[in-house]
Design brief:
Layout: H1 2-14, E1 20-26, H2 30-46, E2 49-55, H3 61-73, E3 79-82, H4 92-97, H5 110-117, H6 126-137, E4 146-150, H7 157-166, E5 170-174, H8 181-185, E6 190-193, E7 211-214, E8 218-220, E9 223-225, H9 230-234, E10 239-240, H10 247-273
Parallel strand pairs: 1-2, 1-3, 4-5, 4-6, 6-7, 7-10
Antiparallel strand pairs: 8-9
Helix pairs in contact: 1-10, 6-7, 6-10
Bound molecules: NADP nicotinamide-adenine-dinucleotide phosphate (NAP).
Length: 276
Amino acid sequence: MRAELKIEAMKWREQGIILNLAVIQVGDDAASLVYVRSKQNLCQQVGINLDLFIFKGTVKTEEILTLLSELNNDHKVHGIVIELPLPPQVDKQRVIASISPVKDVDGLHPLNKGYLLSGKEGLFPATPAACIEILKRSNIEIAGRHAVLVGRGETVGRPLIFMLLKENATVTVCHTRTVDLSFYTRQAEILFVAVGRPKLIKGEMVKPGAVVVDAGINALEKGICGDVDFEAVEETAGAITSVPGGVGSLTTVLLLKNVCRAIQMQQEEREREGTF
Ligand code: NAP
């Protein structure tokens, strides 16, 4: 997929356009710094430009909105990412709603969420998209199969529900109020886990031969682990993603794929408006 991205970036370059991603970072949240570095590395590898805008943790909402307005109106900027979380004094919803929907490569804008919900085309979050892409590239059938999702969080679980419906899976969603989690996970032909609880899913919770996709990232003293007890589940599962090296390693690639989709959408929008 990296090679595909490189080819796509090159195609735009041949037309005199350098793909450009703007990343806004507020404060010095440790996880955000890691994600920014990973984006910088991949952008460099595939030939996409990344401009990083850093605000102090004390920034006011209006200052971010001013920058967003500039980036929205700049035709040389094709994608905008705001690293979350934002500090408490910043109005997160206002900031997100101020990103141009056709540059919203994290798929957070209410319009893109609506498109996802209604099965239309739009820009959608990279991590759940990575969960689906892994299955497709592994030739694992999704349509008609029983997908059980553990977690309904905003960034992974919730968007994944609608992506799976679009792929014609039969979807069951579990969360903290689910009574007898194992009862549901054992029915899964494809089990997706995005909860943020290290090794929550054990071997006996998985149906033999099931496909297990682990989106969890948990930083422990010994290193990073997923929400699935990999060693215990590996024996039972028919196929399983690892952490690290699975969903997480694809997320940035899919974010940059969104930049390629975004520029296409921006050109179509301008053609419709007759300004291109
Ligand atoms: P989140 O917003 O905190 O959501 C967690 C979800 O898990 C909630 O729906 C919660 O249920 C559910 N849950 C928690 N404990 C549970 C339990 N014991 N049994 C059943 N359900 C439980 O988290 P998130 O942002 O979606 O992230 C989920 C995981 O994905 C984290 O490990 C995060 O690090 C990882 N992640 C990975 C990437 C990547 O690039 N691979 C990107 C983003 C996030 P309730 O709704 O009832 O509270």
